[in-house]
Amino acid sequence: MEQDATLAHMIDLSRKKDGTNDTAAFAKDVDKGLSLKQKDLPSRYFYDGKGSQLFQQIMSLPEYYLTRAEHEVFTSNKEAISTRFAGEGFFHLIDLGAGDALKTKILLGELAQQQADFDYVPVDISGDAMQQLTQSLRSELPDVDVQAVVGEYFKALEWLQQNKSERKVVLFLGSNIGNFEKKDSIEFLRSIRSYLSPGDRLLMGIDLRKNPDVILQAYDDTAGVTAAFNLNLLHRINRELGGEFKVEQFRHYAMYNPLEGVMRSFLISLQEQDVYIRALDKTYHFEAWEALHTENSHKYSLEQIEELGKLCGFAVETVYYDSEKRFADVLFTVS
């Protein structure tokens, strides 16, 4: 009975109108990326079940400061943030890419304590993650009204726009905006803006520019967990698409460019090789030492963030920092 009650609080937007799931989209993106002259795979495909487990381990690593810094931001500013959210009556708290909502739960607890009038709408492409989150919230914060949505961000925002007319506060945490190239970040934020109205807000996590060595170590830890996370993308292709990657013939490689403020991750082919993928009935050739790009992570100055907001129809209302100013959560209003 408990599981049935939990599932009743979930909306699944992950299936297409013809009933198919996202495996076909994964296959299409893999074919496109491996067919490029400079091979490139979308970082969003890191997060299958195994990838999500590995990322949970990454967040606990001593080198990976990002999660601890943002956790500190919320712990130190939870009352102020929650008061700003709740000061204008009922609102939907929409958490894009919620995952286990570890940091968001800090705010949810404070909002519940303040008896704020809101509901929580976590959004994630992983149905398993949303089911687990809904169950944990029923136990930890039973007074919080939860409506989990399984699907891509914009499908969820479109559904919310059509079905939820009240004020919206959108969370986009964990410096996920850093995974976008500049033009894509502008397109992404403008798309979010198109689903919002005056009075709505966006709270976005930003990894700030800092000592390049600190940044590089966060993406190339000595325990090799980040390497396993990156290589799991090849394992996923093998599992889901019938790929024949010999994963041991690839290695993780990370580099940071302090001029551009960009951390880049690659998988390097250790020898010349051909890889067949059954779902695509196609073979892909790799030269020895050829790089397969898997992720960008942009680091920002506050000035760059303010300019990005202006370009996308947002104005900075407040900036919340951790004690060392390594990380910021920036509260934008719709301008």
Automatic annotation (TrEMBL):
EC number(s) on file: 2.1.1.44
Keyword Transmembrane helix: no
Pfam families assigned: Methyltransf_33
InterPro entries per the UniProt record, alphabetical: EgtD (IPR035094), EgtD_Methyltrsf_superfamily (IPR051128), MeTrfase_dom (IPR019257), MeTrfase_EgtD-like (IPR017804), SAM-dependent_MTases_sf (IPR029063)
The UniProt record lists the keyword Methyltransferase: yes
Alphabetized UniProt keyword annotations: Methyltransferase, Transferase
GO biological process: methylation
Any GO molecular function: L-histidine N(alpha)-methyltransferase activity
Record domain Histidine-specific methyltransferase SAM-dependent: where: 26-332
The protein, known as: L-histidine N(Alpha)-methyltransferase
